[in-house]
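Per reviewer request, we include the raw input and output of the structure prediction for the construct analysed in the revised manuscript.
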Amino acid sequence: MSKNKVKSICNYIENQIAKIIKYIYDKKFIISIFIIIFILLAFQHSVITMYFDDYGNASLSYSYLVKNVAGTNYNFSQLLTWADKIYNNWGGRIFYAIAFIIPLLKNSIKPFMLVQTFVITSIIFYIYKIIKYYSKKSKLIDIVPILILILYTCIDMVYLRHGIYWASASVLYIWPLLPLFATIYFYIIIIEKIQKNKKRHSIIDILIIIILSFLTTFSQEQIGIALLGFFVTYIILHHAKEAKKYLFIDLPAVLTTIISYLLLFLAPGNWARMDTTSFSKLSFIDKILTNYPDILKNIFLDKMHIYIYVICLGIIFMIYKIFIKYYMKTKKIYFLIVPLMINIIEIILIHYNHILYNQTIFLIISTLWLISFLVVSILYFNMENKIEFISIEIAAACSIFCLLLSPTLGGRTGLPFIFFMFLISIKLLLDILNNNEKVIKIIAMLFIIILAKRGLYNYINIYDGYRDNYSISKLNDQILRDYDKNEDKNTIILYKVENSWYGSTQSYEEPTMDFWIKEYYDIPQTVKFKWEDIYERFR
């Protein structure tokens, strides 16, 4: 290689390093924020241990027991055998299981929780990037990650213990949110490039969207249908009149989403499992009538309502902006009083539900609130020339209302919708803070302070709860790992945690777990567990 060639390569590397250093220097504030977010999340995840069917998944014994697997020592063929049996007899959610949960839990929970910390930080990053795209003129955009973190710390334990801090659940309800929000972000960026004629065709763009769409939709039903809802409404609202111009990206995106979602949804195991429930025997209408009230309660009453308060504030702001914009022109905008009154009544019903609750009134007002929110949003974002943002709201609705046909409405099923509410509510909060109206801006800032205080209390309280259980859980783990078959023990003494609320179901609360635990630690099924409560005397 000639000296000039070597010099050219060295200069190129030097220039690239200089660019990276300059980028880090220019973005030092936002990079510092994300480093802090990662550390705070890692701190919380450091005291999470394995729960319930984590043991069964990691030892290939959940739902179907693969033969000749000693503990977590399995080969690729055995992994595929388990995946095949699950897909055909239990459900279609196999990809994230065999790609992430099983290999990461093979030796301990630590690798999984470290990767999950990165995953959640990345989800926050892409939510931030989407909001930044729709708020390009905002001077406050760098505080968005802080606002997202505040809302994240406000997530209630109902969702955390059986969702985020339970590995086998979080890998399905949280991890696919990363490719979901990444898909949305890259898609709108690619569309903008085409719109401005910066780039008409790129194989790399297509491959990115195809891979991300697959990772999103071949994961979990709620998240897959959310992406499909986003694509369909975005295409209709943004560029339906110029379909040919965007066809090269829209066609692979939609086709990948549909095909991979069908692979998930039409898995024989889904129908085999559905047939075991009484819910499957209900008619289509009866299923909707059965689940609709419970879904509305989940959204407006059961631990999720704090995010609805933020959106209610956003609705008042949107109504105000629409009124200011159009009143001078038409003076026929008084119909906005209707959504305003519905919004106020909904706030009262949520806040005083323990006193004022009446199911019929609640269902009517909450349904009207959803309709009025969509109508006001369409008017507002159309006025702001961001009508395609409605596709994100439709995706959020798809993520929760697809449960109308689901036999299961557990707490963790609300998690995808909660993360969508982060995006929607913070976009509205940012618009309020960028507005010149001091009164509503002050209200928004006070609301953020209240949320931050609540989030900090929640963060500390939850960390303390899991930390108090951690030492006992680790002791039990070591006892089980040290078990020697040759010593022929018939009983193993284990210890109950201080408070099982901070963690998923414990073995002494649900003895069916014993089978998975013994398989995971390669302990004979004839051995019995004896649970002792070392905290009993203190209680």
